[in-house]
Amino acid sequence: QFPNMIVTMPKDENEAKNLVYTAMHHAQGPIAIRYPRGNGLGVEITDKREHLPIGTWEDLTEGQDVALISYGPTLATLVEVAKTLAEQGIRARVINARYIKPMDTTVLGDLGAKNTPVVTVEEAMLNGGLGSQIANYFTDHGYTNRIKRLGIDDTYIEHGDVEQILEDLGLTHDPLVHTIQQFLD
């Protein structure tokens, strides 16, 4: 990582447009906008351009039992996971960590103060990823939240169909629901 580098990843095409708009008007250092392999989600593109304040996250669902934190297209899956968990009485707060760096310390402080269990899901390496950064934040600030990091271990991933790779990694709907249930038991 580069000092003062801002790293983002949009959840969909509209957020990508807004992050580019934000980056164009940001003069205090470089901004990297990650994008997923393959196609976007296919959301309807709006004409509205919105500045997304640096380092802010977004709640996609509300819940107090567990926080599911991710970025990029994984969030669409997590919203569906939250619906399934709600049917089982588990209220999940899905958080769009669109700014991977810097993190939203207001959200993290709130989660820490409430001792909310946290599950991070990344289509990226776990070592040094968002989940690791969140765990470090909690430790550095004296929070004792339980945290489960889901993503890619330090191993080579074969090139192939994205959906098949995610399934093999346990990062699709059903395995995520199962893993989160086990984590909360």
From TrEMBL:
Pathway: Metabolic intermediate biosynthesis; 1-deoxy-D-xylulose 5-phosphate biosynthesis; 1-deoxy-D-xylulose 5-phosphate from D-glyceraldehyde 3-phosphate and pyruvate: step 1/1. It is an enzyme of class 2 (transferase). Residues 2-39 form the Transketolase-like pyrimidine-binding domain. The keyword Metal-binding applies. Gene3D superfamilies: 3.40.50.920, 3.40.50.970. Residues 55-174 form the Transketolase C-terminal domain. Its EC number is 2.2.1.7. Its cofactor is Mg(2+). Homodimer. This is Pyruvate dehydrogenase E1 component subunit beta.
